Amino acid sequence: MSCNDCHPNYDYESQAVKVSDYYSDVQPTWCSGCGDYAIWAAIKRALVELQIPTHDVLFCFDIGCNGNMSDKIKGYRVHSLHGRVLPLAAGAKLANPNVKVIAFAGDGATYSEGINHFINTIRNNYPITFFVHNNGNYGLTTGQASATTKQGAKRTANPDGPSADTLNPVHMALSLNAPFVARGFSGNLRQLVEIFKEAIMFQDKGLAYVDILQTCPTYNKEMTIEYYEERIKQVDTKRSDLEDALKLAKDQDNNIATGVLYRNENSLDYLSRIGRKQTNAVNEVSQYSIDKFVQELI
Ligand code: SF4
User: Fold this and answer.
1) Which of 39, 98, 144, 197 is most buried per CB count within 10 Å?
2) 162: CA distance to ligand 1 center in Å?
3) Count of domains in the chain?
């Protein structure tokens, strides 16, 4: 399958920024049929269609199958700790607001270990883009239940399925007043590229959060491509009504809305709230001779 199968009118190699700029020689190790392949393709296509060169982007990865993308794409990349990608990404953006900061994590890291960071990233409205590979379990560690595993769905460490209520992260983010909230599906690459483009450009206004329903055919046997295709309803992308978005997000079982569910054009990001500094941390970094200091120690 080539890039142009999904977007026949776009010449991915004749532009100033080419899809090959983001190409890495390291081959993916995801399982056959994994939704990570589509997310990997979508991020490269979105950046090329936006004509954003590799030196203007920082990719931050959490631990998990999502994090295995960290050496499968060219550009500045950091592979962080489990559940901790958001503080890293926010700190990087505050140090250098001129780059687009794109963070990736899974549902396990984001909605369990790192849920405090998720909530506080929304509250502070850090100007970053955040993509969650939500496959409904911990794929990398052989399919344990996560906060988005359906209640009662059997998993390796939960033979009777989790007894806890299933989290609805999209509804939660909206209820916390996140300024850009979208839901994507790894089985719809074209829609994913459009959502990614909007989310990457929105970060100048604040946090852009996208929950991606990602298939994990190895461990999540219930939520297959067919399962989602029977339930997903695409919505249009010009949404600014929070109450409407909350209603759309509520159902994550039968009528699952995908698309940009909400964007607040009046969002004030963290830097605007605190008042921008005259210089950014990255501009304050310089080279200084430490010879005199060393001589004093000898
Ligand atoms: Fe993909 Fe699941 Fe395999 Fe991980 S375990 S690579 S999420 S199919």
Assistant:
1) 39
2) 20
3) 1
Distance 166 CA to ligand 1 centre (A): 20
> What token pair was written down for 266?
């009046």
Does some domain include residue 151? yes
Quote the ligand 1 centre to 147 CA distance (angstroms): 17
Query: Which helix (H) or strand (E) element contains residue 233?
Result: strand 232-234
Helix (H, G, I), strand (E, B) or coil at 79: strand
Q: For 104-148, how does the pLDDT look when each residue is reduced to its tens digit (9 = 90+)? A: 999 999 999 999 999 999 999 999 999 999 999 999 999 999 999
Residue nearest to atom 5 of ligand 1 (CA): 139
Predicted TM-score (pTM) of this structure: 0.92
Choose which residue among 27, 29, 30 to substitute to test ligand 1 binding: the one with the highest number of ligand atoms within 8 A of its C-beta.
Answer: 30
Query: Would you say residue 236 lies in a domain?
Result: yes
Return the residue matching tokens 């769905």. Answer: 153
- The string of pLDDT tens digits covering residues 238-297 is 789 999 999 999 999 999 999 999 999 999 999 999 886 656 788 777 788 889 989 998
Task: Compute CA distances 154 → 2, 151, 172, whole Å.
Answer: 36, 9, 24
Q: Cα torsion at 92, 96, 99, 105 (round to 10°)?
A: 10
Atom of ligand 1 nearest to the CA of 218: 8
* CATH number assigned to the domain comprising residue 107: 3.40.50.970
CA of 218 to the centre of ligand 1 (A): 6
